[in-house]
Structures are given as structure tokens and as C-alpha cells.
Automatic annotation (TrEMBL):
Gene Ontology molecular functions: DNA binding; phosphorelay response regulator activity
Record organism: [Clostridium] ultunense Esp
Classification via InterPro entries: CheY-like_superfamily, LytR-like, LytTR_DNA-bd_dom, Sig_transdc_resp-reg_receiver
Positions carrying 4-aspartylphosphate: D60
Record's protein name: Two component transcriptional regulator, LytTR family
Occurrences of domain Response regulatory (ranges): 3-123
Keywords: Phosphoprotein
Amino acid sequence: MVYIGICDDDRCFLDYIENRIEEIVKAENIVAKIYKINNGIDLLKAYDKKNKPFDIIFLDIDMPKMDGLEVAEIIRKKDEETILIFLTSMEDVVYKAFKYDTFRFIRKSHMDKELEEALQSSLEKLKDEKHIFKTTNGDLSLYISDILYFEFMDRAVYIKTFDGIYKTNIRRFKDIEDIFGHKGFVSIHRSCMVNENYVKSLGNLDIILDNDEKLPVSRYRMEEVKRSFIKVARRG
């Protein structure tokens, strides 16, 4: 699940962006929860309940009471990871936002053209986040692109990379599914999730990875695995 916040004081504009985002994530086969917020103060209140309530925030610069730059400054003190995308009709203030580690700027006059690229690029960025895993040998830092697959065995989640296999302290496979289900991984059976970018070929009820390892696929998951394989192949 990808959590997306949209903050703009124009309610009609909020509805329009929400509809476009829904169309884009649906085409990408990504499940997203979208939150519409019409002022910066309410956006910041979300951080009172959770350290990182959103994966992506679309933030209007020109808002009453508290503008988008003021909101971004407070957000960055709490959250250095959330992807910030500014919405603006004031192109002359864009340079002021660079210090907030801004991912993209979308000009409202070019919304149709720029929104899709910004969102797709954001989703790709999310797929290669760095994660810290607690393992039996201490903390392990991995980019998503380092991981071949996750597997649940003997009441623990194991991580397989090109370099080795690591036993984590994670005791529920659902915890992995909740985090990585929208980050380029596909379930091949109920206790294994594979990085879709490393599936080299499909068999009748198995797959071969780029390291030539063969893994079994549940017949109930095969169609989903095929769709994932085709999507990656088309992307090139």
C-alpha cells in the first residue's frame, strides 16, 4: 500500500488530482490510499499520529495561513524520507523550495503533462529505498534492489541476496507483505515474495531468477506472476 497525501486549498483541484492519481496507480497495478487535505495545518496534524504518515506528498505552495514552504520546513524536521512534490502556479518561487529536498515541481498550468511523470518517478524511487533489517547477526542495511526474495521458514523471515542469505528477527511474513507488496515484489506462494526485476523466465509452476535459482510457484499465484513478468518486460 502506498500512502499519498494531497494538500491544496482548492477543493475542486483536490478532486481533480485525486482522480488522476487513481487512474495512474491503477494502470501501474499499485494499491494506494489517498488523503485529501485542504490546509497545511491539518497536513501537519497527521504527523502527530504517525512518524511517517505518507510515502508521497503533493503540496501546494500558495495556501492561506501557512504556505507550502512553511509546511515543508516543518515536515523535513520530522521526516527526511517522504517524497515531496510541490504544486504551484507561482513559478518564480520554485527555487526557494530546493532546500527541502524536493523531488519534483508540477506547474498547475501543465498538470496533465507533468503529474503522471512525477508520480511514476516517485513510485520508482520508492522501489529502491534503503531498509534496515534486524538479523541474528546484527543490523543489515539493504537497498530493495539488493534483494532477490524474502522467504518464511522455521518461523522466521529470511532474505536472499546475490551475495548470501540472512535470517531476520521478523516472525510474521505479513509484516514483509505489508511493506514490500507495492515495492516491486510479487508473491509466488504464501511464504515467498520475489523481486519482480530478477525473474528471468517462467515455467509451468516455477520461475528462474537471474542467479539461475529455480523457485516453485503456487498455481493460484501463477497468473499474478505472469502479469508481473510481462509488466517488467514491457518496461524494458
